[in-house]
Every structure is written in C-alpha cells, then in structure tokens.
Amino acid sequence: MSFPHRHLLGIKGLSEPDILYLLDRADEAVQISRRRDKKTSTLRGLTQINLFFEASTRTQASFELAGKRLGADVMNMSVANSSVKKGETLIDTAMTLNAMHPDVLVVRHSSAGAVALLAQKVGCPVINAGDGAHEHPTQALLDALTIRRTKGRIARLTVAICGDVLHSRVARSNIILLNQLGARVRVIAPSTLLPSGIADMGVEVFQNMEDGLRDADVVMMLRLQRERMAGSFVPSIREYFRYYGLDAQKLRAAKADALVMHPGPMNRGVEIASDIADGPQSVIEMQVEMGVAVRMAVMETLMLSEGNHP
Ligand code: NCD
After folding, report:
1. pLDDT interval class at 87 (50, 70, 90)
2. Nearest-angstrom CA–CA distance, 281 and 99
3. Beta-strand pair 47-52/104-109
4. Is 295 designated active site?
5. Catalytic one among 12, 44, 58, 309?
6. Counting CB atoms within 10 angstroms of each CB, which of 49, 146, 244, 288 has the fewest?
7. How many CB atoms within 10 Å of residue 252?
C-alpha cells in the first residue's frame, strides 16, 4: 500500500512519505488540466458527492472539476437546498446519501470534528474540505505543492503565516504539514487572533509584521474571518491593515524573492494590498491551479484503493 489511509480528515496523522506520495501524484495531475482534452477515465463509473454545509465557491468548484476530469459522476449538495434546513441532522443527511452508494464524500462543515464523525457512519472514503477552525488538508497540500514547484523544496524554508490564525483551519493544516516536511514556521498576528498554546504547535510567534517577515522565503496571508468572530477582535479594519496588512513596505522585510500566498477569498485592502496580490511575487493564481491537481490526486488515491482498507 502506498497510502495507508481510508479517509483524508486532516494533515495530522499523515507521515512525511504519505504527504510526499500525494504531492508527487498531484505533480503528475497538473498536466491533465493544461491539455485541451482534460477528461480521463480513471474514476469512470464512480460517484462523488460534494456535501457542503458551509458556503464555498472555490473549494467546491475545485473538487467538482477534479472529479469531472477524472471521469467520475459528480453531485453537489449544498446546505441552501438541503433538508438540513428542514431540521434533519448531520448524521441523517449522511446516512441518506450513503444509501445512494457514493464512492467518495467531500464534506465541509462549520463545526470542528463534524467531518470525522460523519466518516465513521458511511461506507466510503471521506475527504475533509474544511471543518470549522480545525483542518483543511487539501488547502495545505496545494500550498505545499505551490511552494515545492516554485522553490524546489520545502525543508529549511522559512514560512511566515500571517493574520487571523485563531479562526483559521488553513493555518492549522499548514503548520502541521510544513513542520512535518522540515520547514521553519512562524506565525504573525495580534494576540487577540492567536489561539492559546500556539507555540506548542512548533512555531515561532511574532506580533510585529516586520520582525516576523524578516528574511522569510514564503509569506502566507490569511483572510480576516469576520464571519467567525463573535464580537470585535480588531479595533478597526484601517488599523488592522496598517499593522497587519501586507503592503510593499512590509514585504521588503522578507527575502527579495519571497513568495506571496493567500488561500482566497481575499479581502483586498484588509489583509493584503491590491498591488501585492497582483504583483510579481504573488503565486495566488498558481495556488488555485495546484488545488485542482491536489484534489485529483487525493480522490484518485482514496477511491482506487477503496476495498484495501478494513
Ligand atoms: C479557506 C477556508 O474556507 O478555510 N478558503 C478556501 O478554502 N477557499 C480560507 C478562508 O475562508 O479564508
């Protein structure tokens, strides 16, 4: 077995070889999306259901295209038109879909742990497309693929993750993955946006952007997740941008060839200046391209080894 897991619920629990296996497979999948004929028959006859309890545009589109390019039949279920609105529980929804014999379920939910719970109840592989502030494993994998293809490696690079770390499943999954592959990870945020115990995750913590960005190889910006904030975590958006928004002046503290990344959706003028988001150091569009490749690799890996797991 080259990948010994039935589900992809998080980066936690994956070994370095597991991560490298998925990245290598994703590297091969990149070519498929660059061809004129993008359809393969790898997953022909198999059914993929995207079950999104939380709004998503890019992640859902990315999983949908990935499945279609592998030849699977893809069905999207989003909460807006599901019976969850009529009071059905998470598990009942999952059991109903399970009875339709899907071959993979891609699930996003606003509660941490909801996807893992669902995975225990259904008969097919489950992929976590983001659960609350917990994990978003395919995002961390696509970020790693983007870094590896641009910088040639991940080990010993200094990666600064900046902004709303507290509410970010992207930050958590990236911290775990980057540490596993030997990068030096920093987080930069005001104390109100840092989870307690963050230093135990193997990161260096900074509250000042210039200090945290000094000589960084990669600058990973996070969206200020106002929809997850109960109350006020930052004095004002203008203040936030002034101290924590990535602009040309702050970026100068990082290495001259540092990559600028953002998982999207971006708040221009809040966590990142527009000219930086569109500037020569930005690899934000490449992240989107790598996203489809990573999701193809993950789905193909889990679905084709289905049956080999207890
Ligand atoms: C991220 C998410 O949903 O966690 N976005 C995404 O997957 N496209 C980050 C975010 O919402 O800020």
Report:
1. low
2. 48
3. parallel
4. no
5. 58
6. 288
7. 11
CA dihedral sign of residues 165, 287, 245, 236: negative
Predicted structure pTM score = 0.96
- For residue 265, whether the previous peptide bond is cis, meaning omega lies within 30 degrees of 0, is yes
Q: Are 214 and 239 in contact (CB under 8 A)?
A: no
Looking at ligand 1, which atom is closest to the CA of residue 54?
A: 3
The residues that bridge with 260 in the sheet, in sequence order, are: 219, 282
- The catalytic position among 25, 47, 59, 148 is 59
7, 25, 134, 136: which is the annotated catalytic residue?
A: 136
pLDDT: is 289 or 230 the higher one? 289
- pLDDT tens per residue, range 26-63: 999 999 999 999 999 999 999 999 999 988 889 999 99
178-209 pLDDT per residue, tens: 999 999 999 999 999 999 999 999 999 999 99
Say how far apart CA 21 and CA 125 lie, in whole Å. Answer: 18
Percent of the chain having pLDDT more than 90? 85
Measured in angstroms, how far is the CA atom of residue 56 from the centroid of ligand 1? 8
Probe ligand 1: pick from 107, 139, 228, 266, max atoms within 8 Å of CB? Answer: 139
